[in-house]
Amino acid sequence: MNISSTRYTFIFAIIVCVVSGVLLSAVSEGLRKQRELNEELDVKKNILKAVALRDPISPKMKGPEVLKVYGSKIEELVIDARGNVVAGKTPKQLTGKDKDLFPLYLYKEDGQLMAYAFPVVGQGLWSTLYGYLAVEADATTIRGVTFYKHGETPGLGGEIEKEWFQNNFKGKTIYSMKEHKLTPTVVVKGKAADVVSKDELSYHVDGITAATLTGKGVTELMARWITVYDAHLSKLRKI
Amino acid sequence: MSEALLSTKNKKIIKDGVWDTNPITFQILGICSALAVTTQLKAAIVMSLGLTFVTAGSNVVISLIRNFIPPQIRIIVQLTVVSALVISIDQLLRAYMFDVSKQLSVFVGLIITNCIVMGRLEAFAMGNPPWKSFLDGLANGAGYSAILILIGIVREIFGSGTLLGHHVIPASFYAAGYVNNGMMVLAPGAFFLLGTIVWIQRSISGYKES
């Protein structure tokens, strides 16, 4: 057989495509359920982490325990663009079409509201950054932030998933009581204390060396989502 | 014509990949990833394992079908095999080792574009039987891993003061005015290191530019 002939080349190319196509679909389909379970569990883990419920949850905590804590302490809501709660909807029912509906998670301890958490998504340098932001019951102070999915350069932009970076957000305020305006968190270039005045430190955090653009992405997504959720949070804030 | 699994010839294949024709220091391949993923040792190790596995695996597959591949489209066929292998691994990791797959993030995809994988397919697997090709892939992966891990160790210690995330530079050093070397975190730091390693390796192995 002449393996250089056009006919053979075409046949071979088709066989390679079909074989690898079938193989990949089979692998993807066969593992889909397991993958989705992992992803859902990961989301719940990160909501718990954002509201700082993580201490009772050691990182080694197994899936069922995460689900149990989540189920007993987190309440899922959906709000619309004006900040009103949409009755009878859960975040799970939201699809890509629901552009004006946003999931909101409430953390309650024995019926008492402790914190609000909501997803934050935006572009970094190379990839989309996914995270959760948790705000204390005062609707002003950041309780915690977590970035759990991204494709930034490890060691540089990838540092956003590290504790030291996320810890910088804790205690920052998203609303200035003095000036009565929203103050979404800004990631500066270098150390925040060197760059901005003392008053502004309440909403500026340290940047990551050699990852200025990832930091910019974080600043942008903070501004975007804090503004969106402020429609709801502003109703809860006592001014 | 049967041959022992680790005959002299086969041992030479291993030695070539790891030392004499090391993919990084001799062939100067895979430089991009050697710069990009070595700021921390852990990332370097994971990337090394991934690449070794893919190189060995795709070498075997291509070697098995080497006599049937039409020469005009061989590169595309190689790329398809590599991609299919990498994507399958990625899916498996996501299903059963979710945390590891999160750490790998973009690396898995980067393996597809690594010149070493295609380089070995084109240079070795297209003309050699499966077992030899497997050894060649393994050896080249090991050669790549050794350099990557070496650079990873140096960069993490001097760039961040840690090793595998644990602090190794005592706090008293910092108190005495020691600062982490910022250049080590950036790509140029890796370039200088890489240059030094190539120089040392070549002067020991006696390589001469032809």
What does this protein look like?
The complex is a heterodimer of chains A (239) and B (210). By secondary structure, chain A is α+β, with helices and mostly antiparallel strands. Chain A contains six helices and nine strands, in the order αααβββββαβββαβα. Chain A has one domain (7-236). In chain A, the strands form three sheets. Chain A has a five-stranded antiparallel sheet, sandwiched between helices. In chain A, helix 2 (32-50) crosses helix 3. The mean pLDDT of chain A is 86. Chain B has one domain. Chain B is built from eleven helices and two strands. Chain B has a two-stranded antiparallel sheet. In chain B, helix 3 runs antiparallel to helix 8 (130-160), helix 7 runs antiparallel to helix 8 and helix 8 (130-160) crosses helix 11 (187-205). The mean pLDDT of chain B is 85. Chains A and B meet through helix 1 and helix 2 of A and helix 4 of B.
In total, how many beta strands of chain B?
2
Task: Trace the largest sheet of chain A across and list its strands.
Answer: 1-2-3-4-5
Mean pLDDT of chain A: 86
As a whole number of angstroms, the C-alpha radius of gyration of chain B is 19 Å
Relative strand content of chain B: under 5%
Strand content of chain A: 15-25%
Instruction: Write down the domain tally of chain B.
Output: 1
Largest interface: A-B, 31 and 33 residues
H/E element sequence of chain A: HHHEEEEEHEEEHEH
SS summary, helix count of chain A: 6
Q: Alpha-carbon distance between the termini of chain A?
A: 84 Å
State the low-pLDDT regions of chain B, or none: none
